[in-house]
Amino acid sequence: MKIKFIFGIMTVFLYLSACNNNEDKTKTEQPVEEEPTSAVVEEEKAVYPLTGIEAEAEINQRAVAVMINNHPDARPQSGLHKADIVYEVLAEGNITRFLAIFHSEIPDIIGPVRSARDYYVDLSKGFNALYISHGWSPDAREKLESGEVDFLNGLFYDGTLFWRADHRKAPHNSYISAENIAKGAEAENISLNEDVEPFKFLTKEELDSLQGESAKKVVIKYDNSPTWQATYEYNQEEQNYTRYSANEQTVDLESEEPIILDNILVVEMQHEVIDNAGRRGIDLTSGGKAILLQKGIAEEVHWENQDGRIIPVANGESIEFVPGKSWINVVPNIENAYSDHS
């Protein structure tokens, strides 16, 4: 009896040991489930909204629109080469002025700064820009003083935010800087931290499939005199345009850096003289004929005013821009103003 009891105990012990070993073996042999590999999500890079060029950091700054003089006595200008968008429009007679929209870069020296006109104010509204001028026409004054846009005017800050350069004579010698714009905005309680609605830009594949007529050298005439003509020449190697006034390349006064452009839009708008001083009224809203230059190619299109911006369109669809800087020439008659010298 005793031997049977001991044998029974040993049998139970061996059975339990075997079970434990099998359990351990099962645990060991079970495949270890790997943690699911999460997809690597690339961080979306910040892009300047008016150029489509990659930015080094997040962008939270307001656009600044500056009236810049284009009288021969004001050439070469300062800071114009850093503007993302430039509108060139007739002021009085055959003299054009520039509305330079700065966002991706705001220069240390900008000018010569000139007086406001109502249609330039309206163009600045498409970017919710802080509007900078030195002086104003009656219609522009009414718009600005009514609060349609935030503004700084050299009439009130001559010798403080604005300074007079000693190498030029008035009224071609008023200048302002990025630092002084910031000071003026702070003094007037104007926000400089506002988002800018982006343009639409072409992808690389779309850039490679652009179609149209060759346009290596074009001239925009505001008068028969070369003084009031803008010439654009295409650089095949760099694939961009440089600009000339009166057959002299448009460069920065201080650095001598040239104006480099990726989009040139020539638009026809109705003009009329509205007073004895020769000031103009210009129809910014009705749309009309346009020619778009990109990558050495010219395309006949139309323009529309979309939320205050002048945009090229074809077949009812907006046309995307080439990433880079843009220049918009507003003319009374595109057939008289535009000529191809390629």
TrEMBL record:
It comes from the Bacteria. Gene3D superfamilies: YerB-like. Residues 50-190, 220-328 form the DUF3048 domain. Pfam families: DUF3048, DUF3048_C. This is DUF3048 domain-containing protein. It comes from Metabacillus herbersteinensis.
